[in-house]
Specification:
single chain, about 400 residues, Immunoglobulin-like, Leucine-rich repeat, LRR (right-handed beta-alpha superhelix), eleven-stranded parallel beta sheet, six-stranded antiparallel beta sheet
Length: about 400
């Protein structure tokens, strides 16, 4: 299913209440939206996104797709948020992203006729504000089937040992009981409710829980009873905190709480000794807890677009770390203990304030395959020195690349 666009929204060239100018970024050419009803995802394609400013770099950016009862006129958005995607990179002045494409989860909405609008939003003074928008010309009839939905009866008939279930449009309630699904291992919940039903804790066999709930703020206290859990994801939501009790998730291997309102990690995070992947992108966290380096099996860490100002001094204790992303965070240096990260293959510090990386540190990272230094405070001379000391097979990025 595809829609073509031929009307570009007006650029909103205004100054915020605190005196900071919005970036002068435009959505240009045509755009297309495609919906994958099987997987519940949208793909948005835009011919180009251009930063018309002559100096500087944009703030954090995201795209949001809205379905509205009336065509959007550039003021208040009154309609349904149906998908959103966060840019991996800020856009420098005089730069253009050509053939921009992004995938985003699709949130179901009531049946009806709607106008469609893509809004480009920038983080200004701590909150996202619309700086440009794009209207699709014609109304669309929304009558999508349930996305990624299997009925309990069908799953029960399959009599599989590891059952999978996805709930769209409603959350767990008193009618959905453990006895209905005794071997449930994977559960994906997509809805607009602001809380989970308490009976989530009864699914003791659950190994993978994915929450696609933009309005949820808190998790039930007894969610820690999911002792078999190996993967937990709650992204693009209003979630404010993880309870200390998540330390009971002794089998957890992957934790993704990106794009949430979480301000701090619980100290008990260090008890998750089997954790291998941790994603904390685009949230309100400004520091990592002291227990963080107890995550002895951590292999993949992302803290992109956060207010985290420093990495732990004993970062080198994460001896299994292979992938580290700190894009557009507030860090200004790499701790010397990073010399001990002998397994590190991927390092991305683009868009940070890092202004020095000792040659000794770079020489010690013999497994390094990729390092991104673009948009940092490193001088050209320093970058040349780094290139000289990285392993021969390592790819070094020193210039900003946009398109995502």
């Amino acid at each position: 299913m595809g829609y073509k666009h031929c009307v570009i929204g007006l650029l909103l060239s205004v100054i915020s209440a605190f005196g900071y100018a919005q970036s002068n970024i435009q959505l240009l050419g045509q755009a297309e939206m495609r919906l994958d009803t099987k997987n519940g995802k949208l793909q948005i394609s835009i011919d180009s996104i251009k930063n018309l400013d002559t100096v500087g770099i944009s703030g954090k950016l995201r795209l949001r797709l809205y379905f509205l009862p009336e065509k959007y006129n550039g003021t208040t958005v009154n309609g349904f948020l149906t998908g959103e995607s966060y840019f991996k990179q800020k856009i420098p002045a005089n730069s253009t992203a050509i053939n921009f494409k992004t995938d985003m989860p699709f949130y179901e909405i009531p049946k009806g006729k709607y106008y469609k609008t893509i809004c480009l939003e920038e983080m200004i003074d701590g909150e996202y504000q619309i700086i440009n928008f794009l209207n699709f010309e014609n109304q669309s009839e929304v009558n999508y089937p349930k996305l990624s939905f299997q009925s309990f009866e069908k799953a029960l008939d399959q009599k599989v040992k590891r059952s999978v279930h996805s709930i769209s449009g409603k959350c767990l309630d008193e009618n959905i009981q453990l006895k209905t699904f005794p071997n449930l291992a994977i559960l994906h919940i997509k809805c607009r409710d602001d809380k989970l039903h308490e009976n989530i804790s009864t699914f003791s066999t659950l190994k993978h829980l994915e929450l696609n709930m933009p309005n949820i703020e808190n998790l039930p206290n007894d969610i820690s009873n999911l002792s078999a859990l190996e993967r937990f994801s709650c992204t693009i939501s209003s979630l404010k905190e993880l309870p200390e009790s998540v330390s009971a998730w002794k089998n957890l291997k992957s934790l993704d709480i990106s794009y949430t309102a979480i301000q701090a990690l619980p100290q008990s995070i260090g008890d998750l000794r089997n954790l291998e992947t941790l994603k904390l992108n685009d949230n309100e966290i400004n520091q990592l807890p002291a227990s963080f380096t107890q995550l002895e099996n951590l292999k993949h860490l992302e803290i992109n677009n956060t207010n985290i100002q420093s990495l732990p001094e004993n970062l080198g204790e994460l001896s299994n770390l292979q992938h580290l992303e700190c894009r557009h965070s507030e860090i200004s240096e790499i701790p010397s203990s990073a010399e001990q990260l002998k397994s590190l293959k991927h390092l991305d510090i683009s868009g940070t304030n890092v202004n020095k990386i000792p040659s000794k540190l770079i020489k010690s990272l013999g497994a390094l395959e990729y390092i991104n230094l673009s948009g940092t405070s490193l001088s050209e001379r320093q970058m040349k020195r780094i290139k000289k000391h990285v392993p021969e097979h390592c790819k070094v990025i020193t210039e900003i690349q946009i398109g995502e």
